[in-house]
Amino acid sequence: MKIDFDGLVCDLDGVIYRGDRVIEGAPEAVAALRARGVRIVFCTNNSRSTVAQYVEKFARLGITASPEEILTSGGVTAEVLAERGAVGRTAMVVGGDGISEPIGDAGLRVVDPRFDGPVDYVVVGLDIAFSYDSMRSSARAVRNGALLIATNGDVTFPAPDGLWPGAGAILASIEAASGARAEVMGKPHPPTMAAAERRLQGCTRIAAIGDRPDTDLAGGASLGWTTILVTSGVTAPEDAASVVPTPDHILPSIAALA
């Protein structure tokens, strides 16, 4: 299939892999795109892992990627907080190293939900160890004045055995318990879309490829990019024709781009 673009914003979960299993043909497709001169930004809402961990995972799956090519919602959150002058302030992180490491590197003081003192921000992402105590303490911090920020709002993500609860499911419980609505940084929201566009500066024809219409397609469409839906993740082939927003192209997987 011929799709004309010189920059690609590429989702990860459900596009490059499911869990620790690479999508068949994904490494070859990435290599073919690069051989054609396409610049790629691997852009994920999943904030669990650090950029370095993603680089290592890509290597295990047969794909070479530089840290500059990987954009995470955790990294975007840290960039935004730094731009807003949050250096030196305290952030309670509900999530893993993929959030706490970049936020700490941005100059904030990072604490976990066991912290009992005042905090300025509660930052919520994917936390596979999430507990009632975490929900209680983070909701209390928000009620006491902390700003609630979410790396992303994805309620599920694709795993080898089906869909697993995502950061959005965790966030929903904290929003309900605190009575607050979070500011969301990940796709399709402007912070991540703007960060991806900056990394592809100089590209004139950008495409976004993903498996989730409400994040990948909506984010790409908001900037006038070509949108490509793959049915290797959360969207089943039988549902692809009826998703909103309507994609420009529907493919069984990224392998079709090779």
CATH level 1 name of the largest domain: Alpha Beta
Percent of residues in helices comes to 25-40%
Number of helix segments?
8
Mean pLDDT: 96
Major sheet strand order: 5-4-1-13-14-15
CATH architectural arrangement of the largest domain: 3-Layer(aba) Sandwich
Beta percentage is 15-25%
Order of helices and strands: EEEHEHEHEHEEHEEEHEHEHEE
Please tell me how large the radius of gyration is.
18 Å
Silhouette: globular
Question: Summary?
Answer:
The protein contains 8 helices and 15 strands. The protein has 258 residues and is α/β, with parallel strands linked by helices. The chain folds into 2 domains: 110 residues, Rossmann fold (3-Layer(aba) Sandwich); 100 residues, Rossmann fold (3-Layer(aba) Sandwich).
Description:
There is one protein chain. With 258 residues, this protein is an alpha/beta fold. It has eight helices and 15 strands. It has helices at 26-35, 51-60, 73-83, 97-105, 132-143, 167-178, 190-199, 213-222; strands at 7-10, 17-18, 21-22, 39-44, 70-72, 90-94, 109-111, 121-124, 147-150, 156-159, 162-165, 183-184, 206-210, 226-230, 249-251. The strands form four sheets. The protein has a six-stranded parallel sheet, sandwiched between helices. Strand 8, helix 5 and strand 9 form a beta-alpha-beta unit. The longest helix is centred in the middle third of the chain and has 12 residues, at 132-143.
